[in-house]
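Severity: low
Component: inverse-folding endpoint
Summary: output formatting inconsistent between runs
Steps to reproduce: submit the following structure tokens with default settings.
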């Protein structure tokens, strides 16, 4: 099980009331919400191993160089060195280091890589996997990794983090008209305002799906642009031709990396906290209460682990 951690703590932050606070009054709704969510995932889905995948760079320079608008609307401050500062709710930012410390003290693997997003970590670990993979994310970009043959699914939270929609190939085809392999092409044709991807003007989700159904993939669509006998409408042909510079670079931006160098880590779920004294201090300092207790109980009740990775 691979967690798109920032996606999930954002969901937890907005799904759990900010009235959930530490003894000193600091909001800990994202921290406690994430712990409760992980407890439910482990209890209900029984993963053999689990990795909290991290955004070490939420807006990698190599993606911005290709598509300058990539996530530009979410930048609060640009920096010469390291990731740009992202627009984050004032009461969420202080909770992120607490989440990191708590996961480390419990012994849940946190894995990231400089210059890459959590999506790229997930893509790399999925490519390495020799067993079925469940990806837990609120980001539709990761639908591109769904693969029935390899047993890769996406568990997509709806209504906060309380319920999950399970996306396999059939579910993707039913909703979007493409399978996992086609989703990245659909996304770059359609565009995504939340990521600052312009897409092709006039090509929405349904049109993108029809184009891919007719021509197979992005390369097939662009071949149709150059084929006078293809059934593209004059308007579609013109818009796709005009978007050629964007479509030449967008695939590298939209498709997750699958070959990121990652540090060694242990993906097994601990039966007991790895650093109990540190965890006890964090629990007291931040008032983690029942959320932490529920997760520790679930971990103690499960069998075994997956070993080092």
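Observed output (run 2 of 3):
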């Amino acid at each position: 099980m691979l967690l798109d951690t920032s996606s999930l703590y954002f969901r937890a932050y907005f799904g759990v009331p900010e009235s959930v606070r530490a003894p000193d009054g600091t909001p800990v709704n994202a921290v406690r919400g994430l712990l409760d969510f992980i407890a439910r995932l482990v209890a209900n889905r029984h993963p053999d191993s689990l990795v909290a995948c991290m955004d070490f760079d939420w807006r990698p320079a190599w993606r911005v160089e290709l598509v300058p608008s990539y996530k530009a609307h979410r930048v609060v401050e640009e920096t010469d060195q390291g990731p740009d500062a992202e627009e984050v709710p004032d009461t969420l930012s202080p909770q992120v280091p607490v989440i990191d410390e708590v996961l480390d003290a419990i012994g849940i693997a946190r894995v990231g890589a400089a210059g890459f997003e959590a999506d790229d970590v997930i893509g790399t670990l999925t490519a390495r996997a020799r067993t079925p993979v469940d990806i837990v994310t609120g980001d539709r970009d990761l639908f591109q990794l769904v693969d029935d043959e390899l047993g890769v699914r996406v568990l997509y939270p709806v209504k906060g983090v309380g319920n999950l929609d399970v996306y396999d190939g059939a579910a993707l085809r039913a909703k979007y008209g493409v399978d996992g392999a086609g989703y990245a092409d659909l996304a770059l044709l359609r565009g995504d305002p939340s990521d600052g991807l312009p897409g092709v003007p006039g090509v929405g989700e349904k049109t993108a799906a029809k184009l891919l159904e007719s021509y197979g993939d992005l390369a097939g669509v662009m071949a149709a642009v150059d084929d006078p006998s293809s059934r593209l409408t004059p308007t579609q042909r013109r818009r796709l031709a005009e978007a050629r510079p964007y479509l030449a670079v967008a695939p590298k931006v939209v498709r997750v990396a699958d070959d990121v160098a990652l540090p060694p880590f242990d993906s097994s779920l601990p039966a007991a906290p790895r650093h109990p004294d540190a965890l006890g201090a964090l629990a007291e300092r931040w008032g983690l209460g029942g959320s932490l207790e529920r997760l520790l109980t679930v971990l103690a009740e499960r069998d075994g682990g997956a070993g080092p990775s």
